[in-house]
Design a protein that fits this description.
This protein is mainly α and 88 residues long. 59% of the residues lie in helices and 0% in strands. It comes from Pseudomonas migulae.
């Protein structure tokens, strides 16, 4: 586990969102990072698509980024939803 330095303003946003959504500050930060990472990897997906992807991933053991990237490299991008599997 590493340490991520963020601005005081962002930390305050995390505090507010984590309270509102009943998550720890760390869980809220990780959630936002996961959503942002997937949005950057798949700009064609909207927020609800990404949320569905995360729910499917959780039901199948978690999002496997290595498997997701391997599918992208092998030009099987449309099968992105198959890139969910066991967590490390």
């Amino acid at each position: 586990m590493g340490i991520v330095k963020i601005s005081e303003d962002m930390h305050e946003h995390l505090r507010v969102a984590s309270d509102a959504l009943s998550r720890s500050i760390n869980a809220q930060a990780e959630h936002w990072m996961r959503i942002g990472m997937l949005a950057e990897l798949h700009p064609d997906l909207d927020h609800s698509d990404i949320c569905r992807m995360l729910i499917r991933a959780e039901l199948q053991g978690g999002l496997d980024l290595k498997k997701l990237c391997a599918l992208e490299e092998s030009s099987q991008g449309p099968q992105v939803h198959a890139a969910i599997g066991a967590r490390k």
